[in-house]
Amino acid sequence: MPSRILCPLLLIPALWAGIASAQTPMISSLNPSGTGSGGPDFTLTISGSNLDGGVVYWNGSPLITTLSGSNLLSATVPAALIAAPGTASVDVANAGGGLSNFVVFTIYPQPLSITTTSLSAGTAGTAYSLQLTAMGGRPPYVWTANTLPAGLVLSPSGVLSGTPTSAGAFNIVFTVTDAANSSKSQSLALTISPPPLSITSAAALPDGTATVAYSQTLAASGGMPPYKWSLGNGAPTGLVLNAGTGVFSGTPSVKGTYSFSVQLADSSGTTVSQTFTLNIQAAPITITTTSVFDGTAGKPYSQPFAASGGTPPYKWSLTSSQLTGLTLDPTQGTLTGTPQSQGAFNITITVTDSSGATVSKPFTLVVAPPLLTITTASPLPPIGINTAYTQTFSATGGTPPYTWLITVGTIPGLTLNAATGTLSGAPTAPGTYTLTVQAKDNLGGTANKSFSLTVNPSALTITSTSPLPASTLGAQFSQAITASGGTPPYTWSSNGLPTGLVLDSSTGLITGNTNAPGSFTFTLTVTDSARQTATALFQMQVAMPTLPGITITGLPANAAAAAQPAVALELASPYALPITGQLILSFAPDAGGGDGTIQFATGGRTVNFQIPAGSTAAAFPGASVAFQTGTVAGTLKLTAQLQVNGTNVTPAPAPSTTAHIAASSPVITSALLVRNATGFQIQITGYSTTRDLTQAVFQFSAAPGSTLQSTQITVPLTTLMSQWYSDPSSIQYGSQFTYSQPFTIQGDPNSVLPQSVTLTNSVGSVTAAITQ
After folding, report:
1. What percent of the chain has pLDDT over 90?
2. Residue 552 to residues 255, 607, 640, 655, 674: CA-CA distances in angstroms?
3. CA dist 410 to 392, 436, 746, Å?
4. Do 616 and 710 fall into the same domain?
5. CA-CA distances (angstroms) from residue 137 to 112, 115, 179, 207, 480?
6. Residue 10 domain-assigned (yes or no)
7. Same domain, yes or no: 477 and 449
8. What does the pLDDT look like over 58-79, one tens digit per residue?
9. Residue-number span of the structural domain to which 87 is assigned
């Protein structure tokens, strides 16, 4: 009889037909007709005729058989007979010696699977072992894993063992492969807990000494680093515990034996504590001052002395010979007063602590005679001609009051007050003058010092005017600034010059290349050799150079779907400055949703580019940049945005180009036949720029020696594909689809040979051969 193609109904078993004698048993069907390998014992039911008193045979071996009804036998099939995939021959022999027809029973392969569903937790530093299990496929199995925690290994037989060295949560992908080279993978979580948290430092810390720096690093193990240390009450004053490093350090101030607790916490929040003891010994008393300041006769003097160790408070005393005017504070240890005579004096300082410990130390104190000195700096501040001037001289040392005198030189228009030391008046002649000034104290001591004073001829003025000539961004600029008056040579400085310009400090010439557009305000200052200054405010404009024409090339007016054109961007002529920008890709569909596959080859719908100064071609991540046109009918648009030195210079309207993807018949990229036990599936991939499909027509032929009731099947697709294309999630695929059509064969599945499939949308149809 011819085979029938059922779509998508289940397989209807073919019936055996034939002529049998009344004595010959006949098998018409088996229930079930097949089962999966590796299963348990099951009952096989045989239907037919002349079965009364018959025995069921499995590949020639008898099975335990029970008569379940008229022409109905039941036999128990042991699990051992279906342990491996394959086929078995089933027949019946009745009591009269008649032998039935043979019927094939199919043992399907049982899928390979991993039966271990979870891993027991482990502990870092503790031995671990676990057997992984699997079923199905074809034993024996070989196990592998993608990665394992340090310290663990996986044997080919599936034993996970070893001693993990670090804690954490791990996701391990295990793969089991059977003898038929089939494999199955499973991701399982393994938690390795840290070892118990503990403080490992000895409770009795090494001794310290009062006032002497102390440092001891506490140690810990286990838990989950990083650790956090904290110090309880009772620790010696002056010592602290670093929370991150566990360093217990500082300078203890008081001797004694201390007991205190230390707490340790790890990153999981687990805490432990330990009590420590520390003995701080008293430091020996020592005078730490190494030398004393020199003094000057008749001037106040102060010298502090310091000690360490012992047991404060301290008591200080002084032993001296011929040193008068100074006393030592017994509690503060400070030597103060006014030395009355000059010379080098030997003194001894003694300190005694509260326990009676005493230490002495000798010092030499040098007392210098008082020195008269004129402290006013030279040269004197410059002054302009006929300008009021006042300068008071000052001195130190000697015995005030002082008397002032000019011993060498004169300045026309200026006089010196002998009592106050003030030089005042209005100079009447320009020039640079040199004076020698003398100060005399009340005891007749004198001091002399030479001074210079410059009298400028006229006021210093900047003669250049604002605004300065305008410039163009990136263009060479040069402008000299001039001044008059004062005393040349001049020194120039600026504040706020446009970026890219510099001022020559000796010539006043502004040069450079402006690299930022806009209106700029800045100050220029000129200083002459007499240190007079003049400042002026200036302005200038920096304009942006005209941008050449911009062209986007490489995108045809009518673009193909699922293409990848390469595009480029060019200037009509070279530009003096580097240009940066973005090329922006947009899409407007003719109908329906958009297309998420439309993007640049570098990812996304924007791509950066640069055009070096003096060049015309845009440099993308490559010489050019390509993009996916997608699979939906609509209009593509490329738009350029440009910047120069951070300023948007995009023309209005922005440079752009467009291309249209026309609606077309469907495109089939593959049509693949996948056979199964009851028939086959035809898996079709492709796209439809109209985002619709109305039907699929499948064409079949019969295998040699077979016939088909029908050779063509039409499947309506309007509703199915409308649901797909109206789903928002389909937009990420454009108009692409994967369509799988199952077929169930009534009869021999191999007698049906799929030939082609024809898909139709609102524009037209396309036909593709079916391959396998």
Report:
1. 65
2. 84, 14, 8, 7, 47
3. 16, 9, 134
4. no
5. 4, 13, 8, 71, 92
6. no
7. no
8. 998 999 999 887 789 999 999 9
9. 22-108
Q: Beta partners for 680?
A: 675, 743
- With cut-offs at 50, 70 and 90, classify the pLDDT of residue 20: very low
The closest of 463, 441, 473 to 371, measured between CA atoms, is: 441
Query: Which range has the top average pLDDT, 289-298, 587-596, 653-662?
Result: 653-662
Task: Answer yes or no: are the C-beta atoms of 65 and 50 closer than 8 Å.
Answer: no
Q: What integer pLDDT is reported at residue 226 of this predicted model?
A: 92
- Strand, coil or helix: 752: strand
pLDDT at 321: 67
Please state, in angstroms and as integers, the Cα–Cα distance from residue 757 to each residue in 532, 666, 671, 722, 767, following that order.
98, 12, 8, 20, 6
- Amino acid identity for residue 391 in this structure: Q
Global pTM? Answer: 0.40
Helix, strand, or coil (residue 749): helix
Number of domains comprising the chain: 8
Is 9 a member of any domain? no
Report the C-alpha gap between 56 and 93 in whole angstroms: 7
Asked whether the predicted pLDDT for residue 709 surpasses 60, the reply is yes
- Report whether pLDDT(660) > 80: yes
- Do 559 and 661 touch, CB atoms closer than 8 A? yes
The residue whose two tokens read 């890709």 is 585
Q: Which backbone phi and psi does 729 adopt, to 5 degrees? A: -70, -15
8 Å CB contact between 28 and 49: yes
132 and 214 in a common domain: no
Contact yes or no for 192/167 (Cβ under 8 A): yes
1 belongs to a structural domain: no
Let me know if residue 294 belongs to a domain. Answer: yes
Look up residue 45 and give its amino acid: T
Q: Model confidence over 118-146: pLDDT tens digits? A: 999 999 889 999 999 988 777 789 999 99
680 and 742 share one domain? yes
**Rounded to a whole number, what is the largest CA-CA distance in the chain?**
164
The beta-strand segments (E) located in 150-243 are 152-154, 159-162, 168-177, 183-193, 198-199, 208-209, 214-217, 220-221, 228-231, 239-241
How many CA atoms lie less than 13 Å away from 578 in the CB half-sphere?
7
Residue 88 has a pLDDT of: 93
Q: Which two tokens stand for residue 652?
A: 């209005």
Residue 206 CB neighbours (<10 A) = 10
At residue 519, φ and ψ (nearest 5 deg) are -105, 125
Residues 620, 567: Cα–Cα separation, whole Å: 10
Q: Report the distance separating Cα 639 and Cα 584, nearest Å.
A: 5
CATH of the domain at 709: 2.60.40
Residues 518 and 603 in one domain: no
Phi, psi of 400, deg, nearest 5: -60, 165
What is the arithmetic mean of pLDDT over 325-351? 91
Confidence of residue 8 (pLDDT cuts 50, 70, 90): very low
Q: 620: domain CATH number?
A: 2.60.40.10
Q: How confident is the model at residue 511 (pLDDT cuts 50, 70, 90)?
A: very high
In the chain, % of residues over pLDDT 70: 97
Q: Which single residue is written with the structure tokens 């039966």?
A: 115
710 and 738 part of one domain: yes
Distance between CA atoms of 654 and 212, rounded to whole angstroms? 75
Task: Identify which has the larger pLDDT, 386 or 171.
Answer: 171
Closest by CA position to 528, among listed 486, 577, 560: 486
13 vs 404, more confident: 404
Identify the helix (H) or strand (E) that includes residue 718. Answer: helix 718-726
Is residue 228 within 8 Å of 243, Cβ to Cβ?
A: yes
